[in-house]
Amino acid sequence: MTSDLTDDNAWIFRELQRIGRSIRKARMDRNLTEEDMLLDVPMNQSYYQDIEAGRANPTLDTLLRIARVLDVPLADLVR
Question: Which residue numbers delimit the HTH cro/C1-type domain (predicted)?
Answer without folding.
Answer: 23-77
